[in-house]
Design a protein that fits this description.
Number of strands of chain A: 11
Number of domains of chain A: 2
Largest sheet of chain A: 6 strands, parallel
Distance between the termini of chain A: 46 Å
Oligomer: homodimer
Strand content of chain A: 15-25%
Shape of chain A: globular
Strand order of the largest sheet of chain A: 1-11-8-7-5-6
Chain lengths: ~290, ~290
């Protein structure tokens, strides 16, 4: 069996171009300049990578950026107050807050200061709730699961009526993905597995579509995959290579499933580039409300 | 195989007595009189049955009741404004709104007027979101799924590590139940099935615990059930009996699984009485915050 490689780079670039045109039209037709605010707290540079990359992408497609950086010593109260000011600012349509925050900050309180209508990362409980209630009224979808669904759609794959297994129950990927796939319109029959699932290989082997988001490098091998299944790798693990350099590897041992799965996403170059594109799509949605 | 009957009446009565003592203690030790507000709109009497029954139970165990009844002609704006007044009233700890509302009212707007800290029915998107995000920070659990989990617990059944199938994806029963069962602490591996699931019988037969909440009278028969499985019937369907009277039947054909399942909840007398008890527990929780 030939295994089709599902690649996110081209699709992601295509979506970015679509959003760029939408942003331009919003400006020329309604006079609205889309703007995203980035909220960062000094400290761990690694946790700022996502926001730095969002900044670059936004500017590239005509979205204005408001950057708010705070010293590591900031208190929860001050950060909450600052985010409330941005939430009330009508020129700002979307707010991204660096997560995780330094441990002395009350993350839940900070997140709840973001106006739900500007919560393009879909981290506010209100938006997670709209999603959990069936998604028909959801304003935003979390960017990574949203990107996964969009990538499959653009490649012509439909999960409707299929047996789907999602491996990993994190609140930003596994769980929202399992919800999105099983809502009306998607109509998959979804099993949500996790580290404590018994007989994990055989449960995974029942899947027509297997989504790996468990955060364990190359964890999913051929033994987990039914012949002809579609395998989507949402893992992004950094491991030390033989040459002493860090490598990005997924949750799936790609080589072991080649010739066995009917299609699969590699890491890097599969699902990864989709997250940023869907974030831009969410920012545009927020601006065009 | 003997099939154990899992009965909710006794357990429910026991929980009601526990809550009664808690309510009494809250009053004597902290001077707080627990109070629930009931919001009803004239029209369909059937949809008021739940609130009438809640009223009776609350008064029986020492919870005060504030009743607000509105004519069928009320507008969304007036109802929202009234609920906001109740939400701001510090003497009221819990708010129940009759659902479904008459169709001329915007139900989502009305629900969002309920303060999340008083939303003991767990219908506000904010509370559904806390649940969907893993449930560790959830203030309230929806009463029926909560009652199902509590009933199993008090009978000594644990779903941890087990294969669980939930049949039905409604936002008040099936989906929140599937989320609650698969969170850390519960640790079941959960498959959420629905009317469009293919090969439904065989998926259901993989379950160690099968939860039926699909709203189809006696839909689940022996063919759906693995030998020795535990079957929980969350269905409440009213059908016309041979004698011309209405009968309450579940989603499970109980007689067909006797001697085949290791345990099962009958309808009536199974899960049903638990909902009201858990509602009382939620009202107490709200009052004791």
């Amino acid at each position: 069996m030939t295994t089709q490689k599902i690649l996110g780079n081209e699709v992601s670039a295509q979506i970015m171009e679509e959003v760029r045109l939408d942003v331009e039209k919003l400006k020329s037709e309604r006079g609205v300049q889309a703007q995203v605010a980035l909220v960062m707290v000094e400290g761990d540079p690694a946790s700022q990578v996502y926001l730095e990359s969002a900044k670059k992408s936004a500017l590239k497609i005509g979205i204005a950026v408001l950057e708010r950086r705070f010293p590591a010593t900031i208190t929860t109260e001050t950060l909450v107050a600052s985010i409330k000011v941005i939430s009330a600012d009508e020129s700002v349509h979307a707010i991204l807050c660096q997560l995780p925050l330094p441990s002395h900050l009350d993350e839940a309180k900070v997140i709840e200061a973001i106006a739900p209508s500007k919560d393009v990362d879909c981290v506010h409980p209100y938006n997670q709730g709209l999603l959990a209630m069936g998604g028909e009224k959801a304003r935003f979808f979390p960017c990574t699961p949203f990107g996964v669904c969009e990538l499959l759609k653009r490649y012509g794959y439909s999960v409707s009526g299929k047996q789907v297994v999602v491996l990993g129950r994190s609140s930003i990927v596994g769980r929202p993905l399992s919800i999105m796939l099983s809502t009306k319109g998607s109509d998959a029959t979804v099993t949500l597995c996790h580290s404590r699932t018994q007989d994990l290989q055989s449960v995974c082997r029942s899947a027509d579509f297997l989504f790996a988001a468990i955060g364990k490098p190359k964890f999913v091998t051929r033994d987990f995959v039914k012949e002809g299944a579609v395998v989507v790798d949402v893992g992004t693990n950094r491991i030390l290579g033989d040459d002493g350099k860090y490598l990005l590897v997924g949750d799936v041992d790609f080589q072991s499933i080649v010739g066995h799965a009917s299609a699969a996403t590699p890491v890097p170059g599969g699902v990864g580039p989709m997250t940023r594109a869907m974030l831009m799509k969410n920012i545009f949605s927020a601006a065009s409300l």
